[in-house]
Amino acid sequence: MSGKTRHHAPRPAVTAASPCPCGLDASYGDCCGALHDGRRTASTAERLMRSRYSAFAVQDADYLLRTWHSSTRPGSLEFDPGMRWTGLEILGTTDGTPFHQEGTVEFRAHYTAHGRADSQHENSRFVREDGRWVYVAEV
């Protein structure tokens, strides 16, 4: 480690009463926080996608790994301290309802990386594993 000190703006704390990062009109505690702490499970692929986006926003690596398909799950995750997730747009879904076993969610996730605004566009595939929705991979 070098002798240089890097200063980052403090990350705003997301509390149970904060607006949910996923963009739904609910508090974090009543929305994605309930999935992150295991009080509820995602009923649809879109709901899982939203909760995973929120997990990136609050840096909940355990939840992300728990909701990743066993065949594609990485061994660990590290977050870029210079990245802030700033908004989620759901562009479309295919299947992925409580009555399906698989589905896709197309989305655009907005972020700033080291002060520069950008977005990530992806179409993600989700399946049920042991009865629960999990992320498989980008389609």
TrEMBL record:
It comes from the Bacteria. InterPro entries: NTF2-like_dom_sf, YchJ-like, YchJ-like_M. Signal peptide: none annotated. Transmembrane segments: none annotated. Residues 44-136 form the YchJ-like middle NTF2-like domain. Pfam families: YchJ_M-like. HAMAP family: UPF0225. Belongs to the UPF0225 family. This is UPF0225 protein ACFYZM_19810. It comes from Streptomyces nondiastaticus.
